[in-house]
Amino acid sequence: MPTLLRMPGIAADTATAILSEWQVQENIPYQKDDALATVETDKALVEIEAEEAGVILGLLVQAGTEVQIGAPIAVTGVVGEAVDDLDAVLRQLGVGATETAGRQDGPQSAPTTGRRLFATPLVRRLAQEAELDLHTIEGSGPGGRIVRRDVERILAERAEPAPVAVVAAPPEHSPQQHAEQQGYVDEPHSRIRRAIASRLAESKRIAPHFYVRATCRVDALLALRATLNSAGGQKVSVNDLVVKAAARAHTLVPAMNVVWNDDAIRRYQQVDIAVAVASPRGLVTPVVRDVARRSISAVGAELGELAGRARDGKLGQHEIEGGAFCVSNLGMYGTEEFAAIINPPQSAILAVGAARQEPVVDDGALAVGTVMRVTLSVDHRPIDGSTAAEWMRAFVGVVENPVQILA
Question: Which residues are paired to 106 by β-bridges?
Fold first, then answer.
């Protein structure tokens, strides 16, 4: 018997989500745990998995559509099942016309053709600006999806040389054509990029930032890394050691492991550390749990796995939530020093620069040492300056005596 597949609740504070991409097609069976669709929230891409084997009898929402949580997005059935009249099935399931408005494309729709369009929001905007009917375009993307090159091909075929005249009115151009003539391209904001901009702007506006800076000698830290990696097994990065050192500093100064709420300061017992990862879709901060009590190899392995899935847009919502602290490392790009913006609701973020050889003073004598500059951005509401300074002293002490990381 046909049943409705509804948009699942991805996060507690999310009322809508974008159905980014369908992973299945109508009338083609799928298996239990297969990915049916990819959903985009403010923070991550999440896959909707099949609870049991079945078949899609009808897709109700096109890719790129923003959908209310709980709204129907497809009609499913058992393997081998088919329907002749999808609208009749929807009426039997109690679904009104307003709930399936996403099945068609408004002014560009052609319901008599029976063809469902699959195109990104960018392609739809380009087609609308050029007054193209998407139903007349054959898509060259996967599964017949209409992609940007299909629209550009039609526009190129349509173009003709402008007539030569002594006096001619300037031609009218679409915004896209004007942009190309001026030498730039406007890329529409993704949901995640908008969320990043809103969240960080709010952080600078609401959270009173202050900054604590320090310079660490990292010769011993680099030597420890070389020793650990020479033993084989899971390779350890400098960033892995920095994350462990930050967690160790949290255990030494537990007053830093807090966040600000409207009614109280929340103090965490477990040290969870978020790590900033650059992805094609924007900054993502997966959270490594219980860092202080886990081995460096376990932390490094999970961090590497989370970072890889962050770049691929495969993180779950629960993997990017929680923690009171974040580490942002730009040292691999050669950046010597910078200050980062706190990622709310966290209360602090450590900006880590590159390790460089510089002149240092050892016991009154000039020598060459490897140093790393770090900047701690702190929310002054739950954390006092003296607490942040104490934490920084503890962190530098751990980095310069890294055997504590292994404790």
Answer: none
pLDDT tens digits, 17-57 = 888 889 888 888 999 988 898 887 766 777 888 889 999 99
Whole-angstrom distance, CA of residue 73 vs CA of residue 95: 11
Q: How far apart are CA 326 and CA 49, in angstroms?
A: 30
Given a contact cutoff of 8 angstroms between Cβ atoms, the answer to whether 239 and 222 are in contact is no
351 DSSP β-pair partners: 328, 375
Determine whether 380 is an active site residue: yes
Q: How many residues does the chain have?
A: 407
* DSSP helix/strand/coil, 381: coil
List residues bridging with 365 in a β-sheet.
362
Task: Provide the b/e sequence for 2-26 (b: ≥16 CB within 10 Å).
Answer: bebbbbeebbeeeeebbbbbbbbee
Which region holds residue 114: left if phi is over 0, alpha if psi is between -120 and 50, else beta? left
Mean pLDDT of 240-255: 97
Q: Which of 173, 209, 318, 380 does the annotation list as catalytic?
A: 380
The β-bridge partners of 237 are: none
The set of residues, in sequence order, having a beta carbon less than 8 Å from that of 214 and lying 6+ positions away, is: 373, 374, 376, 392, 395, 396
Torsion, Cα 132 134 140 146, to 10 degrees, reads 110
- Structure confidence at residue 11 (pLDDT): 64
Are 35 and 75 in contact, with CB atoms under 8 Å apart?
no
Count other Cβ atoms within 10 Å, centred on residue 64. Answer: 18
- 29, with CB counted inside 10 A (0-12, 13-18, 19+), is middle
Interatomic CA distance for residues 340 and 354, integer angstroms: 15
C-alpha 374/C-alpha 315 separation (Å) is 28
The candidate with the shortest Cα–Cα distance to 350, out of 203, 245, 235, 221, is 245
How is residue 216 written in tokens? Answer: 């660490």
Q: What is the DSSP string of 105-168?
A: -GGG--GGG-PPP-B-HHHHHHHHHTT--GGG----SGGG-B-HHHHHHHHHHH--PPPP-SS-
Q: What DSSP element (H or E) covers 391?
A: helix 385-400
Before 171, cis peptide (omega within 30)?
Answer: no
